[in-house]
Amino acid sequence: MPKPLIERFLFGLEEHLRGLMNRRDFMKTHARGALMAAAASSGVLSPGPLLGAAVPDISVAVGGAAAATRKAVEVLGGMKAFVKRGERVVVKPNMSFTGSVMDAVNTHPEVVREIVAMCREAGASRVRVLDHTLRPSEKCIEGIKDACSIFGDDLVQALEKKDFYREVEIGNAQSLKETDVMKDVLESEVLIAAPVAKSHGSTGVSLSMKGMMGLVWNRSIMHWRYDLHNSIVDLCTILKPRLVVIDATRVLTTEGPGGPGKVITPGTVIASRDMVAADAYTVQAFEWYGKKIGADKVKHIRLAHERRIGRMDIQNLNVKRTVL
Amino acid sequence: MRLRRTVQAISFSTFLLLLWYAAFPLALPIPVDIFLRMDPLILILTGAGLRGFLLKMFPAVIILGMSVLLGRFFCSMICPLGTSIDITDRLISGRGVRGDAEAVSGASLKPVKYLVLCFMLVSALTGLSLAAYGSPLALATRFYGMLAYPLVSLAADAGLAVLRPLADRAGIAVIAYADIPLRAFNLLWITVALMGGIAAGAFLAPRFWCRYLCPAGAVLALASWRPLVTRRRVGDGCTSCGLCRTSCPMDAIGQDPHKTDFSECIVCMKCARVCPEKAVRFTPGKGSQPLRTGLFSRNRRALILSTLAGAATAMVALSTLRGRACEGGPGQVMDPTLIRPPGSLPECGFLKACVGCGECMKACPTNTLQPAGLAAGLAALFSPVMVPRRGPCDPACNACGRVCPTGAIRDLVLEEKRHAKVGTAHILRHTCIAWEAGKACLVCDEVCPYGAVSLQRAPGIAVMVPAVDESRCNGCGFCEHYCPVVPGAAIVVGPMDELRLESGSYRAKSRELGLSFEPKNQGDPPATENNGLPPGFSD
C-alpha cells in the first residue's frame, strides 16, 4: 500500500534535512571505526596476554553491586581510561522487561548508577542510559530511572520512535549490511555496555553482544531474514563498546530472557574492553540450566572470535579477580 | 445574553478535556465518559435493545428531567456536536446565518428527526442498535477522539521533529526525547464523510442536523413540548417586527412572533438578544404561546412507515450471516479476526450496548482497539476489535472498560481483566521461521506476559520451536505483535475460547475452566536441545 501523502511528504523533508548533515557524520563515524579496528586488531593478532601489561584483559570484582562495579572498572584503569573529559557517553543496560531486581531480567539499577557516576567523575559532558524496550517502556525503565534520578530526570530514556534512529551501513557484514542505530549512539564518543547476565532461549545467553540489539530499530529482520547469531556479530562490528561491564550480581540461569527462572547471586561484576572476552568469561563462570558450558557453545561468541571482534580463549587472557 | 455562550464554551472545553484524559492511565477522578452518558438517545436505544435501564446512563435521565422543566437547553449549551455545528455554520455561512432556509427546504423536513428516532427505536427493539449513526455524542466523540486527536498528534509530532535537534543542543531533554504516540484508525473516511455531511448542512440551514435529523434532539423535543419552568415569553413591547423569527437558528418562532414551537426551541436565547424592544425573555411567568404544529396528526403515515422500516432493517441485519453469528450454535459464522476487548459482554448483548463512540479506542494505549469494519456486519462498523499486529493488550491496563459509557465493555479491576481471556494464539507452522526454516527466534516466548508460549524439541528441527499452552494464553497478542515474520505474523490470535461474561467474576470462571494467567512457573521442565545443551546453545 502506498504511504499516505502527508507521511511521504514529512518523511521526504526529513530525509532531505538529514542528507545535508549526513556525509560529515558518516565520515566521522567511519574514521573512528577504522581507528578502533586497528587498535583492536593489534590485540587480537598477538597470541596470549601481553606480558608485563599492568592492565588485565578481564577484571572481575565480587562484592556489593555498586562497590563491585567501581572496583571492576578501577582495575582496568578507572573510568578515565575510557571516558575523556567532555566526551559524550551512552550506557546500554538491559531494561527491556518489567520485573523486580531479584528477577534478574534487567541490569541492577545500582550498577547502572555507579557507571553513570564514574562517567560524571571522569568529566563526561553528557551521559545517556538508553534501550529499545520490548514491553511498555515506562514500567521497564522505572527502576533504573529512579536510581539515576540523582543525576537528573532526563538521563534514562527508552527510544520507541524511528526518528531517534538513523541508518548506517555495516561495512564488514556477512548478512546484516545496514541497520538503523540510535542517533545518540552515533553522535557519542563512548559506548558502554552494561548487560545483566542471563540465559536466552534462542541465543543461549544474552550478554553484551546480544544486548547491542537494544540499540537498533529493526530487530525482527535479524530474526527472520538472517541467522540471528551471525547478524548479532555483524552488528557488533559497528557497535563495539569501549567498555563492557557485565552485571552478574544476580544471574538468571534458566528461562531467560524474560524469566522467571532460576536466579543465582554470585555478587560479581565483570569488566573488560573486549566484549567477546567479557561474554565468554561470563558464560564459563556460571551455570546455565544447571550445567557448566564452554563459551564456544554460544554461536555468536564463537563467530565473533572467528571474525576477530574479540577473543573467547579466556585461558590465554589475563584475568584479575578481586574480592571486596 | 452571554450566559448561553459561556455555558456552551465551558461545556465544550470540558468535553474535549475529558476526551483528552480518556487515556491510560486514567488520571482524573471523574468519569471521562460523562458526556456520552448524558445522551438521551443512548439511554433509549440501549434500554430498548437490552430490555432494561442501564444505571450508567442516569445522567441522561437527569438531562431529560431538566428538559421537561427548561426545554432543549442541552442542544444549545451542552451537546458538543451542536457546538461543532455552530462553529461550522459560522465558518461556512459567516455571521449572517439566518433562518431563511425554509424557502429551500420547507417546514416539512422538521418531522424527519422524529421519523429517524422512530426508525432507530423500533430497530433497537427488534435487536439492532444504530446509535453509532444517530447519537450526537457518539458522533462527536468519534470525530474528536479518533479523527481530530490523531491529526493533532501528527501535527505536533511534525513540529517536534523540527524542535528536537534544537532542544537537544540546548540540553532540554524533555523535548529532545519527547515521543508523541501516533494513533492510526480504521475507517476514518466514514467519519470524515458523516461529519462532512453534517457540516455541509450549513449550506441549507443553520443547525441543519439539529433541526431536521438529530434523533437525540427528537427525544429532547418530546420532553420539552411545554417546558414547565422557563420558556420563551414575549412581553407587551413586541411590535411583531419578525426579527426574532428570521434570526432563530431553529426556525422555532411562528409567523406571529408571540408564538413559539417549544419542541424546536433550543433556548439559545438569540431572539431575546436581537429583539429591539427587549420584549423577549426566558423566565418563569406569563406571556408564552405554543405554536400548534399538528405534527403527529399530519405525519401518521410516515411514522408508520418508519416503524416498519426500522423493524425491517433490523430483521435484515439479523438475517445476514454475520448478524446471526453472535448467537452461536450450529452453523456459527464468526469472523476469525473479531477479537473483542477484554470484558466485553457476550456478543449479542455487546452489539446492542455498543454505541460505536470510540472512547475505548481513544483510551487504548497501544492502539490495538480499532473499529471492526465489516467483521461484525454493516451495523457494527464502529464496534471495537483488537488488532494485535498493531498493538498488544497491556496486562497492566483496563482503560477500555473504565471508559465505556454503556458497559458494553465491563468496568473490571485489573485482576479481573487479566482473567478476561479475549482469545487464543496459535502458531502457523508453515510460516514460523523456527518451525519452517530452523532459525533461532522464539520472540513469541520472550514477549509473552503470561508464559503461555514454551520452547519445545521437534524431530528433525535443529532449534527449539514455540508451542502455545492454550490454558495459559490470554489472547493479549504480544506474540502476534512482535512476531518477526512480516507482513502476516506466524503466530496469530483468534477469538477461540474467549471468555465473555454478562456478570460475575472472570477470575472465578477462568479458575473453574482450569485457566491460569499467572507468570510462568519455575517448575517448567528443563528444556534441552542438541546434545543435551540448554536452549540456544549449540556445538
What's the structural blueprint in terms of helices and strands?
The complex is a heterodimer of chains A (324) and B (539).
Chain A: H1 5-45, E1 58-62, H2 65-75, E2 88-93, H3 109-121, E3 126-131, H4 137-148, E4 156-158, E5 165-169, E6 178-182, H5 183-186, E7 190-194, E8 196-200, E9 204-206, H6 208-211, H7 220-224, H8 228-238, E10 243-252, E11 263-264, E12 268-272, H9 275-285, E13 287-288, E14 291-292, H10 299-306, E15 319-323
Parallel strand pairs in A: 1-15, 2-3, 2-7, 3-4, 7-10, 8-10
Antiparallel strand pairs in A: 1-12, 5-6, 8-9, 10-11, 10-12, 13-14
Chain B: H1 3-20, H2 40-50, H3 58-70, H4 73-78, H5 80-93, H6 102-105, H7 112-126, H8 131-134, H9 136-170, H10 173-176, H11 188-200, H12 208-213, H13 215-223, E1 231-234, H14 243-247, E2 259-260, H15 270-274, E3 280-283, E4 289-290, H16 295-298, H17 300-319, H18 321-325, H19 347-353, H20 359-363, E5 369-371, E6 384-386, H21 399-403, H22 414-418, E7 424-427, H23 443-447, E8 453-456, E9 465-468, H24 478-482, E10 491-494, H25 506-512
Parallel strand pairs in B: 2-4
Antiparallel strand pairs in B: 1-3, 5-6, 7-10, 8-9
